[in-house]
Amino acid sequence: MAVYVLNDTALRSWWMLQRAVVKNISGEQRSVASVSKEEFDLLLKCDGQTMIPESELSKNLLERRLIRVAEDGERNDPYLDHRSYDNRCVPNMGINITERCNFNCLHCYEAVDNQIPRSEMSLSSCRELLKEAADCGIQNIKITGGEPLIHKDFMDIAKSVYEYGMTIDRINTNAFFVTSDLCEDLRSLDDHILFNVSYDGAGYHDWMRGKKGAEKDLIEKIKMLVDSGFSVRAAMTLNRVNAGAASETMHRMEELGVREFRIIRTSEVPRWRLNAGDACLTMEEYYDSMLELFRQYAAGRPKIALDVWHFAKVIPENKSYYLAPVMCAADDFRPDLVMCGNARENITITPDGDVFPCTPSPGLYKSCGMEFGNVFRTGLKKILQDSDYLAFVCKGVHAISDNDKKCASCRYFRQCLGGCRLFALGMNGDVLSHDPTKCLFFENRYYERIKDALPGYRCMNNVD
Fold first, then answer.
1. Are 259 and 277 in contact (CB under 8 A)?
2. Contact 163, 127 (CB under 8 A)
3. I need a surface site. Which of 33, 53, 360, 382 has the fewest CB within 10 A?
4. How far is CA 162 from each of CA 21, 120, 131, 217, 345, rounded to the nearest angstrom?
């Protein structure tokens, strides 16, 4: 017999997810997982008071670190106690608090054209939205822009996240307004915040960002963030102009103590097409250049993780990698699997309150006249109960195979699930069509080429 308490784990219930645990409450990003009725019933008894017989079930929960033995007189933090929400579960929300920016990036995905966006969410509107998010059981908040640190009420918005019992898992920023005082203020709230910063290539950053001196300043600000104890992930948008600088840029980030380097192909968003013409790499050029980067990576002793968007992510600690296009094991396929797991778990809100499935999507969806709802007109809870947004992100992959003959007959569909909806829309003009970038990946067997480029590394999600 023993008395247990919940171990950094909260008990929650949503529509269609009645028995859930929220893990890593005090960490960088909270995660939501379903548990069995027997597990949930036992977790409800782990209150620091109830004697519980030792069993295989209690041993299992201890091993998974969902519970721990209580110290004398210890009780659960009230936040961990069971709560129910009257809506569907969406664990993460990205808030674009402002479209204003001190840069004028050539490839900004927020913009439909070269007009400079100016919308901004007021502090009162943001606090109202955050309160409603907490009332819906949202756990993690991503703050983005524009440039979020330019908002005069940024720190009040950040404090509001924690006031309502949520956490900031990341801040997307160009880092220009990072100061030692800001670092100190944010550390007083939470030292687990991840900073996503953009570094568009050694020698090319100023051009991409439309700001002279931006690269020099960014290097200084990254060092400041790392020295303050924050985790930093640097992202480079890759195109014909800056592609040759990828390796140098990655090594520079590793030297600064950045934990992860991410490469994102500069995509065909409306503004980039206007400003750069055919500067987008073809997907084949993108994939091939990344194979060469993998070869260079494997030949060294890297400490920095390398995440190539829509291609593969390499983890140096255990010499493993994940194939980004492989979304599912073939044997686990079901026609009702959602079209995009990322969109199902994340909701994006613009400064005007418009709702979109993912952070890079507003510009393209707007240009195609696609709308999903507005939190200021209908309320967030209503959107998470019954809305065009919910209907879209919960749509099963059968909608793709029913609509697209290529997907319906493809042997890889059970693993790629049709690919990315944003690529399908941008390249085919049809959000329910196949994603050509994934067709290229599988049909040209890039999964085998990645294996050859990363000798000694183990694939964690092989193509069946």
1. no
2. no
3. 53
4. 20, 21, 10, 30, 20
355 beta partners:
349
Provide the pLDDT for residue 280.
80
Arithmetic mean of pLDDT, 442-461: 98
How many other C-beta atoms can be found within 10 angstroms of the C-beta atom of residue 330?
13
CA–CA separation, 284 and 428 (whole Å): 17
- What is the residue whose two structure tokens read 């009162």? 124
Task: State pLDDT tens for residues 1-41.
Answer: 899 999 999 999 999 999 999 999 999 999 999 999 999 99
Show the tokens assigned to 376. 């200021």
Place of tokens 């968003």: 269
Burial of 409 (0-12, 13-18, 19+ CB in 10 A): exposed
DSSP state letters, 263-321: EEE----HHHHHHHTT-SPPHHHHHHHHHHHHHHHHHS---SEEEETTTEEEETTTTEE
3-state helix, strand, coil in the chain (%, to 5): 40, 20, 40
Model-level pTM? 0.93
